[in-house]
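$ run holo --ligand "iron/sulfur cluster" --emit tokens
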Amino acid sequence: MKKHLISHEPKVVSLVEKDYTFIDFLKTVFLWEIVSGLGLTLSALFKKPVTMQYPHEKKESKPGFRGLHALVRKPDTGEARCVGCGLCAAICPSKCITIYTSEDAGSDKVVDRYELDILRCVFCSFCVEACPYGAIVMTKHYEYADYSKEALFMTKEKLLKNWDNYVSEEDAKVYFKKFWAPREEDFESHEGQAVFRNNRQQ
Ligand code: SF4
Ligand code: SF4
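-- output --
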């Protein structure tokens, strides 16, 4: 029976016997792995950087980005579009929306307070989806980190201010057209969208 030189380390012995070639030996002597790693690092110096120098460089938010919330102002009166139905608060999984309503002299519902605790929000956008009036949106704004909790507790006034500050006139026009007065083309499927067909249509 063949005896190994180092009988208590059989794997090391078998590697040396079978796989270790002269090229491997040279690579070990000349520290090839380190040299090739350094070469890779050096080559990165001449490539276009993929990182951004935030906050000096800022990334444009893509359509559908879920940023800071805003309450939509009616373009004609400047009042909040919200009617206080409470659907957004009901669907919110974090229970971070609270709405206080009352009735005015003409028995119309008035939204006295609309409060949204951003620190509890999970940015699911369910409130936006649930609103039957298109009265709440998530803006493209993402730079609202702050040192105080109060700054991140949104009141109705603050949410309306967010609409003024973070939704451009052009974006507002698109929003009103698409969600307040949609036309046929707003319901068209985008290119490549999966379409359901039942047996009768095939
Ligand atoms: S985005 Fe989701 S978690 Fe945040 S307020 Fe809306 S429903 Fe609630
Ligand atoms: S934001 Fe929309 S869903 Fe929420 S209370 Fe106002 S109208 Fe109703």
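-- notes --
The mean pLDDT is 88.
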